[in-house]
Amino acid sequence: xxxxxxxxxxxxxxxxxxxxxxxxxxxxxxxxxxxxxxxxxxxxxxxxxxxxxxxxxxxxxxxxxxxxxxxxxxxxxxxxxxxxxxxxxxxxxxxxxxxxxxxxxxxxxxxxxxxxxxxxxxxxxxxxxxxxxxxxxxxxxxxxxxx
Length: 147
Known about the structure:
Low-confidence stretches: none
Mean pLDDT: 94
Order of helices and strands: EHHHEEEHEHEE
CATH class: Alpha Beta
Structural class: alpha+beta
Distance between the termini: 24 Å
CATH topology: Aminopeptidase
Oligomer: single chain
Shape: globular
Number of helices: 5
């Protein structure tokens, strides 16, 4: 597997991947069908080198976005993997890559706000639960991983 920076020309492909991944999660499906505007990969994040893709034999199978925060941290702003590639360690590899990038960019921690169904995944990736937060789509969890 290769992890590299996303290209601006891949924006729509990444958004389609995000749709497939999100709609295959029963906890997300209905709310996303009601709010299709939630599926977006900001072109600005791609252009500044904050979006990373995972390729498996030349096929794009996942992506993650990480952006710096004002409090010496970084935010894992997106993490999506093709449903047919779930359980192949692609998500974990993307999180680890974002950890390395964040540390290199001066962050001291990586933060994520996630859905309750993803809590086990993030705990397994070294995040700690620091609280809960209200999101546009209901309650989420706030987690942090020290760098």
